[in-house]
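INPUT
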Amino acid sequence: MTAKTAQRVQTVCIYLMLIAGAIVFISPFAWMVSTSLKPLKETMAMPPQWLPSDLQWENYPQAIDEMGEFWRYTWNTLYLCLMTVIGTVISSTLAAYGFSRIEWPGRDKTFMLVLATMMIPFPIIMVPIFLVFRDLGWIGSFKPLWVPTFFAGAFNIFLLRQFMLTLPKELSESARIDGASELQICFRIILPLAKPAIIVVALFQFMATWNDFLGPLIYLTNQQDFTLSLGLQSYQSQSGGTSWHYLMAASTLVILPVIALFFFAQRYFIEGIATTGGKG
Amino acid sequence: MSKRFSAISFRVPVILVALLVLLSGCGENPREDGRVVIQYWDKWTGSEHQAMQDLVDDFNASQNEIYVEFLSISFISRKLMLAAAGGNPPDLAGLWSMNVPIFAANGALTQLDDLAASHDIHESDYLPAIWSELTEFDRLWGLPSTPGATGLHWNKDLFREAGLDPEKPPRTIAELEAFNEHITRFDDDGDIEVLGHLPQEPGWWLPNWAYWFGGDVWNRKDAITVESDASIAALEWMASYPERFGADELLRFRQASGNFASAENPFFNGRIAMVHQGPWMHNFIEKFAPKSFDWGVAPFPSTDPDRYGVAIVETDVIVIPRGAKHPQEAFKFLSWLQRPENLEKLCAKQLKFSPLVETSESFYENHPNPKIKIYRELAESPYASGRSRLTNIMDFNRDMVNAFDQVALQNLTPEEAAAAVQRRQGKLFDQSYRRWLKVRDARLEDKTQP
Amino acid sequence: MTRQERQRLRTGLMFISPWIVGFLVLNLYPFLSSAYLSFHDYAVLSKPVFIGTENYSDMLADELFWKSIWNTIYFAAISIPLNLIIALFLAILLNFDLPGKKIFRTIYFLPSLVPLVCLGVLWRWLLNGQLGLVNTVLRPITDTANALFGSDVAPPNWLVDPEFAKLGLIFASAWGVGNAVVIFLAGLQDVPRTLYEAADLDGCNFWQKTWHVTLPIISPVIYFNGIMSLIMSFQVFAVPYVMTDGQEGPGRSLLFTATYIFFNAFENWRMGYACAIGLILFLIILALTLLATKVSERHIYYAGK
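OUTPUT
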């Protein structure tokens, strides 16, 4: 066997494994979409059918209808996404700037504290945080879900700081010599340069809000204020184990915007995630 | 170009935020006509929700001071707890009566004794089994909307197929199990095709099976008694199922069963012949079962043929959470709803019987549920009672459900399962009872709004 | 401190002030008040009553607490290594730089975008014992095995079977491994080519190169991914909540510590107890993180050291 054939065999093997993996990863989506287009009878057929005999597009409007206030949930979710993205971008840009572009005594030690807060998962402190919002009279409103993002989360600071550290120091120094204030430097010089990283942070925050379940579960009491995640869960627990075609249609509708967003901003997603791990 | 873009991209979100803030503020405005808006949450969906909505509409049209806003809330006991703990509860909420003790003990409900007296609402108007569901610690915490009583529901066609008399439901548990053997059949793969009965279908009252064995899981005062003879007997009854029909087979049977409110409900699609259910069944059978579905209702048999008529009586109960913004106005709606004609209208629409002692002639004549009288008789049976009145009922129920699960899966013997619940719940009960006694007087005296 | 330093300190603090406020109000204060409440009986609508360490001694005796800890550790102990291995394996495959690599990367990444509630709903359906995709695939395999060996195995009932429910959850979360794949891939691409060339000269085969060159160099990335999934898996809540309709699964097999905190706080009105459990969970996470750091210190290779 020549080196060349060995090379070729290796390539074929890798492709086979890649394809096998791809089938495993893609088939849940396929099953979801296939179920969402089946009539009820075919979802219950034994043995299960791979494809619907006749595409039931009306399952989608029907699922929206069954979910109750689907459009209301969508609007609520979008509202929260927008508010949290704005909050995160503003606050973590400022904080990351403070942790990367200004050298002040104790900075790096304080930054360790920022990283340490990532170690406190939400369920651990959800009771006292709930009580804080209770004292503010915010339970049952959207505020507990978006106001905190105006106070810079650790992960976003970390991400932006990593990026801002890579920008040359001379940029700020020459601006300082020209008499620019730090705020001006931050917004006029660093912010435009850090745009890719800010987009990444914004995307991550959007995803996090779209995804969030425990927060809405404990803060939102009125069904009309539900987010899509919470609305989907509440719909499934009401209709659980039966109308799988509607449930899959509803799930597809909740996933679709995220997938669409991903294809628009694929580069930012992949690079953003790659940098999170690279310099940990 | 890029500079202009960034200018726009900064302005756009600012404008959007301003818009959103404006829009989101809209919902909070008081009504223009100056009526007090009452928020009322209840658990119902579909036609049951519509039935109450019709009454709310009637009330809103009947006067011009109060406007009731009626919302359907799923998992209402959890949502009400969050809202009450968060200091932002609705003015009215529809709980299940088993939730009354835990909400009352934790100071989440308004005491209604004085309000009820001043609105001419009296204990003697209500069925005793219902009234006792509304009270706890000798105080009144809510008023009923629609009550229910449970009984045996059987599929007459499956009785016929098994060669049984379709008009003769079992009178004792032993008889029920004999019928069960007749009816149950397996298909060629060894899967259960039709099952006579399964204590876990639907399993909504698993913790209370002890009633049909002549006992209870607590002494109705200050101790848990999961290891009592009746309670063990109920678990032994459960244990006999996997022995006879196979633990795996039962598991597969349960997984193939759909949700209650669906055509895949095993009772509706003829896979199980006898279930423990309530008056709402008529409604759901009309909706989900085949047109020819032939069924009957009778008391669920107990071990003792002389104690025929053991039933669980519960009621949907409307409470005024403590911290509600308009308790007086909320009670006005509540007392309006308690008028016999209104309760009868609501209960008829939900296919239930009236919680009041007196019932008008026309109520039964026009009632859409042809079997309604049986349920009403069950509610008045001397052997009828509510669920355990425990202040940690959810936790207790989960422990009991788990005990039945473990027994059904043959992981634990009935004695082991009962001992495990007794150990944990006995301790929790003692603890909460002890703590409750400490705060009891202060809490019951405190009738103010927080 | 010089004047200039003070000046810089002031500006720095000004910039990080959003974080400081957030830290004080949303991290430090809740943490301290959690500790305070953990020594109290607190039913939210009445004043906290001091009960000493009763919550902690209750916890030690509470079978459900131990069950929830055991379930959480079981889940983490299988899920973390499994996810790391799958992610690393896929990343190594992708790192071969073959045409079409980007398409595969996208396919592997997509599931990690799926919102947790959707993931729970979807996998509940996929893992349905009778009608789900997983068993539709498994059934021919078990049937063949039965025919060949005369055995009698059937695909499990996953989420309704206490023995398999957690495994079902583990598979569901392994599907969302794409994040880690991307991180590993970035790490792999940073491995200097020259090292591989040197290994080639020494006559190393692919596995030797992976073992002796790739793994040591990307060890910091493995550590990072490991810690991240440790923290994530100890707070698992949403997916099991969805899979069980807000309950605890068959035979309590899906009762996790976060779920148990939720039940105690928001259903049993035992806020103090919930806080105590939260603190213990935090200590466990902290201890495991420190342990992982200690162990990995010896094995992590940092460029330049």
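end of record. The interface with chain B takes residues 44, 68, 79, 82-83, 86, 130, 133-134, 137, 139-142, 192, 218-219, 221-224, 234, 237-243 of chain A (CB under 8 Å).
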